[in-house]
Amino acid sequence: MKAVKYLLMGAFIFGLSAPVMAQDYISAIDNVSKALKSDPTGVGSAKQVVKDYLKQFKKNPKALVALGNSYLAVKNYEQANAIADMALKKNKNLGDAYILKGDAEALKDDGGNAAMWYQQAMQLDPKNPMGYTRYANVYRKRSPSESERVLNELRANVPEYPIDAEMGHNYYESGNDAKAFEAFSRAKINSISESYIAEYVLSAFSTGKYDKGLEIAKTAISRFPKNKAFLRLAMFNAVEANSPDAVSFAEQLINSGDVEKRSNDFTYYARALMNAGKLTEAIEQFSKAFSMDNTQVANLQSISEAYTALGDMDKAEEYSIKYLENNPNAKPSEYSKLAGVYIEKTKEAMELAKAAKEAKKTAEAGQYDTDAATNWQKALSIYDKLVAKHPHTADYAAYQKGHQAFVLGMDDEAITFLQPLVSNIRAKSELTDDDKYYLSNSCFDLGYIYWSSKNDLDAAKPFFQDVYNYSTVETHKNIAKKALGLDEEQ
């Protein structure tokens, strides 16, 4: 509900504006709160309990505010306001009573009236930090500058209050994680509350400060050892920072019996294992993550990558295909990964065919040649699917087809794909940075083929001229200079 934006994150309704209670009414108000849960009106089964409480504490304004908060907890806003007014008759400068009235308005989604009462609390009880923080919460999205102004006013009036942590919370709640991190960083970490230190870790994580996020999470684990959420936050940051501690935090979380495990927990555990080189174990955890939530299809791609690292290209192919089949929003780079699997299989088959021919095993060599051709066609097919899905990648796909053919030593095949690409780019009146990239790299491959493989320097020179003109790769430019005779002139 909208009211949440006006109140502190994670606060319980009861006690929203309650001051520290004196011992004489703590147990009594607890009984009243229990009674009001069954009878929010206070005129039925709770009537006598409320009456006895008022009889005993009607002269204590703080006790009255506590009663008002009990009514607030059961959403009896009218009675909460009435009790707040009773407290103000006893002490017109009691900030907690004004805060109670503001909280009632906030829970009714009336931010304007809520801010008015919080402002009254600030003016009449300037040493009470809750008036400032509630007011700042109302304005954190509506007017961040006003919210910041009030928190700076709190800093001046109540210097001992941990204002930087409050500012961090305020920025975090408004979605400004960068400023939240800056503010939290100014606070003394051991004075930051449990919920706020979680926001501190999350703001570090969301702004890419993973090493710092891990450091904060470790402190939080030490301070709040029962809160297993900090193990999860430590794991997240450790994995992203590629820290050697990642597996340890992941295993502590996964092995905790009192933590509900999520699919994402096993994904991060798998990533930690993969970063540590434990590929088989990583595959097991990625599989578990996907079995828990089959909408998280990225786990399939990660399994494929793990199998690729293990050299099991058949399994890598299987899971890469599953990933693309289950992900209608697959990115171009993810199509390229599957094409890369087929290219690796093509290379492997070509090497086996070469070895079989050298051993004069003609039948085996023929089968490997067939396997290489089949996988090469599969790679080309993936690039075609990429272009069909993302037409803007046509030049990228053409270059990859030609370049990969060049790398595999299929020179004529490379020319088939690269020559038309070069002609198309040369025909443009103006070249973008992407155009220059594809032109210079395609021309390098073509120039190298004609000069080295076909021993035709004259045919190679026009390509090397484009390499010289547009390449940003120093080694390519040096080879182009040599082919063009420019190094001799110098």
Give an overview of the whole structure.
The chain is an all-alpha fold and 490 residues long. The chain has helices at residues 23-38, 47-57, 61-73, 77-90, 95-107, 111-124, 129-142, 144-157, 163-173, 177-186, 194-206, 210-223, 229-240, 246-254, 263-275, 279-292, 298-310, 313-326, 332-358, 362-389, 394-407, 411-426, 433-453, 457-470, 474-484, 486-489. Helix 5 runs antiparallel to helix 6 (111-124), helix 9 (163-173) packs antiparallel against helix 10 and helix 23 packs antiparallel against helix 24. The longest helix has 28 residues, at 362-389. The chain is elongated. The model is unreliable at 1-23 (pLDDT under 50).
Write the layout of secondary structure elements.
Blueprint: H1 23-38, H2 47-57, H3 61-73, H4 77-90, H5 95-107, H6 111-124, H7 129-142, H8 144-157, H9 163-173, H10 177-186, H11 194-206, H12 210-223, H13 229-240, H14 246-254, H15 263-275, H16 279-292, H17 298-310, H18 313-326, H19 332-358, H20 362-389, H21 394-407, H22 411-426, H23 433-453, H24 457-470, H25 474-484, H26 486-489
Give the low-pLDDT segments.
1-23
Strand elements, count:
0
Helix share bin: over 70%
Terminus-to-terminus distance: 74 Å
* Structural class estimated from helices and strands: mainly alpha
Largest sheet: none
- Outline, from the CA principal axes? elongated
Describe the structure using short key phrases.
490 residues, mainly alpha, 26 helices
